[in-house]
Every structure is written in C-alpha cells, then in structure tokens.
Amino acid sequence: MGQLPAGLQDRLGRIAAPAPVTAQAHWNNPHRFMAWALADQFKALVQRVDQIDQRLAVLAAPPPNAPWAKSGPGAGAALEPRLRVVLGTQPENCASAPTLAIGSGVAPRRIQRGQPA
To answer: Is it the case that residue 117 has pLDDT exceeding 60?
Structure first.
C-alpha cells in the first residue's frame, strides 16, 4: 500500500482525535462519577449472584437416596419427594425396611395383654 495524500492524513488525524464539546468540564463528563458508582455496585452484585449460583448448585445436587426413592413401587412426581424425606440424607440409617419403619415412626405397634410391646 502506498502513502496517503497529505490532505487525507490531516483529515483522518482530526477525525481520530477526540474533541470536547465545550471547554467547561461539567458539560463534558456530567455522569462519570455516577457511572463509576454504578459499576462498583454491579461488581458487588455479580459476585453475590455467583455465590448464590454456587449454593444453588450444592442444593440442586441429587441426594444420596435419590435412586432408592425412584426405585420405589409407584414412585411418581408426588410420592418420590416424600420418599426422599422419609429416607433422609443418611442412607446407612435405612439398612432394612423395618429399620426405616421404626425410624420414621410408621411401624405398627403391637399390643400384647394390654401392654405396648
């Protein structure tokens, strides 16, 4: 590419250089302070949203008893969450069906000779 003509270089130089609208500073940057303040607030907001996203990811992770709750007979949209609550977050406490029934308080009570067993 060759050299640009001198007149064109001069014109491009004037276009490229920013020119203030006026010599009075309050007219040139009237909202600069507000823009900086808002930018700082947005930075804090973005950090808080990131923290919330991290916490939601932990809460949305499937619990350890999810496969058990889904495998139950008739476990649908209404029963599955209830089964998760009954099973709890510690599957080792539910080693058998009787243990689960006793721990959740749904085991039948036997009464022999008028005395609770």
So the answer is: no
